[in-house]
Design goal:
Blueprint lengths: L9 E3 L4 E5 L14 E6 L10 H6 L20 H16 L2 E11 L4 H10 L3 E9 L13 E8 L14 E3 L16 H10 L4 E4 L6 H8 L3 E6 L2 H16 L3 H8 L5
Parallel strand pairs: 2-9, 3-4, 3-8, 5-7, 8-9
Antiparallel strand pairs: 1-2, 4-6, 5-6
């Protein structure tokens, strides 16, 4: 689906998958009401590596904040994160169809805030799924091995496509040397979610390098992705183009050169 009056950064017309380079909060009000069936997204967690005091010094509440060493909007305070997420969820609510599923990745620190902001913006909170990465990473005490996927909905959720799935999704993370985004999720994980849930047209307002969109394409589902950083829009576009041709991004670049300026 095209957003009226907005030029896409990349569009796969055959698959009806579109990438937009923008702050999602500037586009959501342009999407027709009741047109989106599913939200599957991975917003900045704004927790973990940085201390709260450091976030405050960096001016975390500014929308124009940039961090060349990481990625946009990941240095917010807990309060700033809640304010930011609330604004996005409010914008999404008007464009979702009744019963639409909403899935938001987060970590243990921000899970209560995600629950609270979903409820504060009129969604129903149904469940919290666990992504088991199959191995542990860093941690001062217990080593981190999982992230959360909070499941909300606009009213009573539409029936699942597959009710035979457990609430723990075990899927190996993307190897550090293969990541094109610091918090990139594996395509297989997103495919497992999409296979189980309803929604002809999904949206990812924090598209990153387009993993949700690539998973949707693999499953013949339609999708819209919005990403604030152009460098990630370019990678997302290349990944979708490579998926269309059935080749890797490296093979695409080797054969055709740089596709997007």
């Amino acid at each position: 689906m095209l957003i009226p009056g907005v030029t896409p950064y990349y569009r796969d017309e055959a698959a009806d998958i579109t990438v937009y380079h923008a702050d999602c909060r500037d586009l959501l009000h342009l999407i027709p009401e009741n047109s989106i069936d599913l939200v599957l997204t991975d917003p900045p967690y704004a927790s973990g590596a940085r201390r709260d005091a450091e976030r405050q010094v960096r001016g975390a509440m500014l929308r124009s904040m940039e961090d060349v060493d990481w990625f946009s909007h990941d240095a917010m305070t807990g309060w700033g994160f809640s304010w930011f997420l609330r604004s996005v969820l409010s914008g999404l609510r008007a464009v979702l169809s009744p019963g639409a599923h909403v899935y938001v990745f987060t970590d243990w620190r921000q899970t209560p805030n995600v629950y609270g902001m979903l409820e504060a913006t009129g969604y129903r909170v149904n469940q919290c799924l666990v992504w088991d990465k199959g191995h542990f990473g860093m941690g001062a005490y217990w080593r981190n091995q999982h992230e959360h996927l909070v499941f909300g909905s606009l009213g009573i959720p539409t029936a699942m496509l597959d009710r035979g799935r457990g609430s723990v999704l075990t899927c190996r993370n993307v190897a550090p040397n293969a990541r094109e985004h610091p918090t990139q999720k594996p395509v297989g994980l997103l495919e497992r979610v999409l296979c189980a849930v309803p929604g002809e047209l999904s949206i990812d307002p924090f598209a990153g390098v387009g993993t949700t969109l690539v998973a949707a394409k693999q499953l013949n589902r339609h999708a819209i992705g919005i990403e604030i950083e152009e460098r990630y829009c370019e990678i997302a576009a290349k990944r979708l183009e490579a998926a269309e041709k059935g080749i890797t991004v490296k093979e695409l670049e080797k054969g055709q050169g740089v596709l997007f300026e």
